[in-house]
Structure formats: C-alpha cells, structure tokens
Write a structure and sequence with these properties.
Distance between the termini: 11 Å
Helix content: under 10%
Radius of gyration: 16 Å
Oligomer: single chain
Number of strands: 8
Number of domains: 2
Amino acid sequence: MDVIAQKSFPAALPLGPQVPVDEPFWMGLLEGELRIQHCKECDRWIWGPSWVCQDCHAFDPPWEAVEPVGTVYSWTTTHHAFPASREFAESVPYTTALVELPHAGGRRILGIVTNTRDVRIGQHVRGWIQPAGESTGGWPVLRWIAEED
C-alpha cells in the first residue's frame, strides 16, 4: 500500500447547510457524528437528503447517527488540479472513494481517502471527521482512512 501521511485536505466551497433539509448532516459532523436519514415508516435509509422518503412517501424522514465504516464501492485518483478546484492544487494526487455504508442500508457516500492513494474495490475504510478550518470554510468534513486487510 502506498501510504501517505494522514492529513487534512481542502474542501470545495461552499460547505455547510445549503438548504434546510441537509442541516442535520452538518450539525452531526459538528458533533462528531455521521448522520444519515432513516425512514421509520418503511425502514429505508436515504442519501442524499430529502424531505420525503422515495419509497413510502413519508414526510421528513429522521436522521440517525451511523458508524462511519464501510467498503469502497468505487474510487478515482485525481492527478491534475482543475481550474474549477484550485483549492486542491497542492493536494494532488488524491483519491476519492464512493463508500458503501453497511450500517445505513448500503447507502453510498463520497469522501477523500487521506492515508493512501492505493485503494481497491471492497477494501474496508473508516471515516473520520476533519475539524472545521479555514480550508473547509469553517465546517467539518467527512474523510476516509483505508484499512489494511
């Protein structure tokens, strides 16, 4: 495994609640939790944030803290800083993973892997919350650490 130092990464701004429906996600990160919506009517986990369950149409599905562990479903490594994302210029190359969360019904969520560029589909990862800072617009951000099998 090509190990790199676990480090903080910049984030594409703006971050934080953009619409009221996603506010519980961001408040969860501020409190050190990963929160995903979970419909109590039909037991469906929901990501991205929604006012209505896509299965049973129940309104305002609640948010639940879930363990931030999962497996890599897909990934990509970025080797070039694009003009629209200049804040990442000093961080290339970096790897972004689409992580499947078994504790959230298999919902998938994106994030940067901070300890290596060498990941593989099916690899176990553990989430960590990068503290709020200037490079993240004052909001914490979910990141991933790839675990060795």
